[in-house]
Model the fold of this input.
Amino acid sequence: MSTHNGFCPGPVSRRSFLEAGALSLGGLGLSDLLRLQALGKEAGKSARDKSVIFVWLPGGPPHMEMYDMKPDAPAEYRGIFSPVRTNVRGLDVCELLPRHTKCADKYTIIRSMHHEFADHGGGHKRFMTGRKPAEPTGFVNDAPAVTSYITRLLAGKTGGMPACIAGTDGGRMQIDTFCLGAAWLGSANTPFMVGGDPSSPDFKVQNLGLTPEMEARLDDRMHLMRSLDRLERNADQAGLMGAMDIFSQRAFEMLTSPQVRAAFDLTQESKRTRERYGMHAYGQRGLMARRLVEAGCRFVTMVWEHPGTKMPEGGTYNWDSHAVNAHIFDDCRWRLPYYDQAVTALIEDLYARGLDKDVLLVVTGEFGRTPRLNTQMGTQTKAAQPGRDHWPGAFSMLVSGGGMRTGQVVGATNSRGEHPIERPFTPNDLWATVYRHLGIDYEASFPDHSGRPMPILPFGEPIREILPAGA
Done:
């Protein structure tokens, strides 16, 4: 299994994106996105009113410090934290996740995920597309992301909401940052990107806020649209002018829709609810995800990198806890309490609001961390410190809701957390489960750039242990 012991920048840093400028929708305006979706949309299989919240932990969370602890392994493997019991016998988690212990009956931990791509780019592409990428590095997809198929098939069945929405840190909302490109399905089929920290008092969703100047001109703009020359439109044999008119209208409706704007407005939640999730980026993105699926969005990706709080000297920006990047134990002491609060609040809220049958929650990163610890000089601390490198050979995943069977551990790794020894799964098995939940036939095909029929998912089967009873 290949690892990386040198400096690893991981996905492009937040600062570099801020320096390049925060570009919403990869340069597309809202009306452009809607227009492209219409021009590229084909009829798909009808789906039930189901949705997914996908919490993405870029960099690779440490399975040995979270959900697959090995207290009997040698010291250079097991780390310093202890497992604690939950309310489900046999399901133990790290001592830094005390809130997990009270709701373990509402989630399942899968401990035997694996694939073969140890680079961040390759790992992201392998996970997000369900295909083995031609290039093991880089973040530009050579196959459509799962969100592209969902957008293609479920757009227009969302009550006016975008089919797929992704929330990221500010400056991180370019489509290729997390391998959300559509490849041969076309750029219409990408998520609506929302950047920024929703726990910040000045948080605002770009393309949905109306300035006073815009509000004053809306009536004039609509009058102008109605008065366009009909003959000129008829001369457009491709019909694109008509499509642009339709989607300018839809963009206008989205901009002024109380439902859409309210879905993003966290101030409509009580102070108690917001504080229960946590007034940090993880917590407020989790709360926003719940509001978005309630409003009709079918697939919400929430990227949890930096919690938005003061980082310790031994911490790192996201979950990429190489020894050169972070003191892994100091980073966990800082990061995991925020994660613990946000994940469990989301789980408990889905069940309390009766969403647990319709909303499937998945929490994962692109891979795990090396079971064996290593020590290197930290770039921030300038001191020798422990860390773990990339490890796609085994990693853990949390699944909740969706009518799935919960309160269990599925799969297992060997005594040192190195590789699966029971029920090995790949990301494709997760996606087969997700597609089944959404009512999408993942064996259906779409033509690639050369016209060859390409299946939505080339291989993989739903994870039978978690499927609803009787399914």
Remarks:
- The CA atoms of residues 231 and 241 lie 11 Å apart.
